[in-house]
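Project standup — Tuesday

K.O.: blocked on the structure for the chain from last sprint. Re-posting the sequence here as requested.
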Amino acid sequence: MQPTILVTGATGNVGSELVRILHRQGHAVRAAVLSEADAASLPHPNVAWERFDFADTSTFSAAFSGVDRLFLMRPPAIANVDRFIRPVVDYAAANGVQHVVFLSLLGAEKNRIVPHAKVEQILKAGTVPYTFLRCGFFMQNLSTTHAAAIRDNDDIFVPAGKGKTAFIDVRDIAAVAARALTESGHENVAYPLTGGEALDYGEVAAIMSDVLGRKISYSAPSLFRFAWRLWREGHPLNYVAVVSAICLTTRFGFAETVTPHTRELLGRAPRTMHHFVADYADVWQRPTEVAVVAA
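H.V.: unblocked you, prediction finished:
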């Protein structure tokens, strides 16, 4: 019988692409979503889904019914791992899940501040085989989190200093996750996943300028200025703290290492930043520019 794969974060950057891949490959995939409205944004209307909320244990039973494999993603707003993630891991272990693939963070094993490290420890201490996908910074952060600043202000607003980052495209992460969830041989291992090149944000801005045909700058804000803007935008303090801590890994040079694992696992080169920007160019176009292109 074909295993059923539950994907948490199914409408997010990695999760939606993973659902797309698994569905296309014919696997029994179930998307965990917060609501029926979220289910409407799944990549295919025929994808099975169940309501699931890390903070509501009453949603666990239906979501995990018959599930053999779990793709676990920590929602960015969740900092209290013991309260919201541990119960999910324990429930999965007690209800037939045989493998957990966790979307972790590059260097999590050395950075005990980030919640990803705590989740890894919970999974290591458990009984269910796991795979940790320790990922570098997503290219798609530029097309989501930082999209408005780039589109409206022609500026990348990240407190990374001159540090380099081995950015990775979430489409490559999802492809690795699909293999880990559907093949044997990935149990109890950690894969540090990056793209094929390390770039500082000034270099990223230059690539975007070239592809988009207008000047994009990198203002290199201080950590305080960055955190202050996030707080003023209404983000909770625990979110501001986690995001700021992650940004420090780049600022201090901890995100620049290029690993071979993405290439080895996929049998091809990772997508480049230039490739990514070209594919997502419409995200950063202003309405007048889109209208001109459409005309």
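K.O.: great, moving the ticket to review. The longest strand covers residues 99-105. The chain has 14 helices and eleven strands.
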